């Protein structure tokens, strides 16, 4: 059933007709997000400009029980912002103002639709630093980052989005506007509701503003690329670096397939004749950075690194990081459909997990490119397939089941940073267990009794 | 030969499937950044094309209009890690829109018939129109008409268009350039020079400068008096068959086997000229020659960089230049470092980087005529950045960009010299 006529009239009344899209040609481009092989047509797309717009829209949808799927730039990788059939897509990209940068308290207050890169740039211009840097940061919105609790390349040292949210404004399904958190470093008054909304994937409320914690910008940084003839040696290098009590801000790896695709796109001079590549970065006080960089290089060489290249300037370092961020998309160069996962294990289990993934790919006769965050145990095995090949897609599913089982067995998780959405929905109960599932269901029912926010996502 | 019934359905499906909708193209797309609406983004447009290929969507007027709202600047191709060939998709999508007839209207049909099928299909006609316009301008009639106030009777849009009428050059390329130009000193290469269509009328001096520079660098330059439009206007506007016809004629006029290089100095033309093989892939007679052709076509900056530019002894009188990148030179041909190296080779000239140098200026072929509002927004954005550099000279390697920026500077009363990099180089050689 398409969106009811009175709903469309109401949405147009609330936001103005130019902020409502209803034609087929307008809806098809909103029928997917960044996740492969998932598509569903919404009934309409609406662009609120203010929190009050969002509140009015939610009040209406709650009364009429019309499902709402919140969306930013649609770069998610678990189908979190994939529409429900005929739903209202609530697209926040036009709520795009940075409201305040507080240099005394080192915080930034932003509307949900601001692009992550703009936050990073605004902080940088003030000599400050917003560390979370998800792969899609050039276009992803901060609201989406908070709703999905996004990670990035600096997780090992700096943590993830959750660690930088000090407060947020959310509109509840009944239209009530809730503010939680503040600029205080310490605050233990009541439940930490902000933590409930972080990573809630658009199910509990619509996040409209976020208050972010900033850090002083590190005075120095050194970026290095080390290449290895075996993945094992790269993994051992990472273990040895941590064992040497160095916590670099970045320890990323790419396998051979990924290296070739990335170099084909980015042309940053990655060596093509190696099995594994480590992108390593250390930042902080200049003396500490110099010392750590020297020791990291030494450790890489001791593990048989074929080459260790140090970025000569900021531009080269940025180009290398950008190249790494393109890895997932670049893999699409070799196959029509790229299915990316983010099984994560405790760091100590990483080498074993990489071996396991390779063995599973062989067992199911699948092509795979693997890259990810070696420093924090977050892997991105990416199957290179074709969604039109049903038989192969079935093998992909089977392979993933084994990978997730192994991740759980090793004390890891089914998703490190992409979220559950629809992609991991079926395996969440097994991972989370009955008690957690019951609490999550009750929480959701308490906040959204009519089930209008992102129904069918995460769990039923 | 490709049927004109459905370009998108006949296209190899892997081309549409290549887009894995990650969204990394969005921040590079001028129309998305301006509107924040997915339909106006590369990812959104590809989704619509795919929906047509999958028969989930009919070719509609809205679809057709969307394909013409796209600038075709190809910035998305530079941004796309997955390597989607948006240029190919976009040309087929426009051809699909034209073939389906969804955009037909008496006014549009007339304009297209005159411009694409009549004027730009035949250089004699174009030159004749150019001569008439030149006469009109030289006799002072244009000034007279402008002063008379009669233009006030025209609708606003036509008045704006009239104000942006380019000044036609006193001489066309064939009147400035001999058929054979001997190299200065030892002959190192034999090259052909494409003088273009609009370029020939409005910037024939750039063509002359290009030939001079080539000769100075040891090239014997062959410049036939009678030349053709390269067909990019036709391909970009959904006229696939005309584009193929012009490509065949071009190959006949400049047999690629006879030259070390075939030189173009227009970024937009070069981007199209290098893909004749794609255009003629199904042509039993021309497909193989088109491959050789594609390899021989060189943008002037690219060619000079490749053969090693003779540095000019004396440079500019001094000054600050900034470089605006033609979309089809930067994104279409990936030529970004060469023009900058050329400009740096000119003594006394200081090159200052232009912020967003590879962001479209709004010219985009005939986009500024069809979508004046978006085109003007982009022009203002560009002029703002140009002002921020403090440069007095703006160099750019495409006639569309030159015209757009000349008009923009005129409207805003900015004391800027807008010039092709090759002209700056030619002037430096003349001083030496």
Provide the fold topology:
The complex is a heterodimer of chains A (460) and B (432).
Chain A: H1 5-15, E1 20-21, H2 24-27, E2 44-46, H3 51-64, E3 68-71, E4 88-91, E5 98-102, E6 107-111, H4 116-125, E7 128-129, H5 142-148, H6 155-158, E8 165-171, E9 177-181, H7 193-197, E10 206-213, E11 215-216, E12 220-228, H8 231-243, E13 250-255, H9 256-266, E14 276-284, H10 286-302, E15 307-310, H11 314-325, H12 327-330, E16 337-340, H13 350-363, E17 367-373, E18 378-385, H14 390-409, H15 428-447
Parallel strand pairs in A: 2-4, 3-4
Antiparallel strand pairs in A: 1-2, 5-6, 6-10, 7-11, 8-9, 8-10, 12-14, 12-15, 13-14, 13-17, 16-18, 17-18
Helix pairs in contact in A: 1-3, 8-10, 9-11, 13-14
Chain B: H1 7-10, H2 13-17, H3 30-35, H4 42-53, H5 61-69, H6 75-79, H7 86-100, H8 106-119, H9 123-138, H10 141-148, H11 156-163, H12 173-176, E1 180-181, E2 189-193, H13 198-202, H14 204-216, E3 219-222, H15 232-236, H16 240-253, E4 261-264, H17 267-273, H18 276-279, H19 287-296, E5 297-299, H20 300-307, E6 319-323, H21 327-332, H22 337-344, E7 349-352, H23 367-370, H24 372-389, E8 393-395, H25 399-412, E9 417-419, H26 421-431
Parallel strand pairs in B: 2-3, 2-4, 4-5, 6-7, 6-8, 8-9
Antiparallel strand pairs in B: 1-3
Helix pairs in contact in B: 5-7, 14-26, 20-22
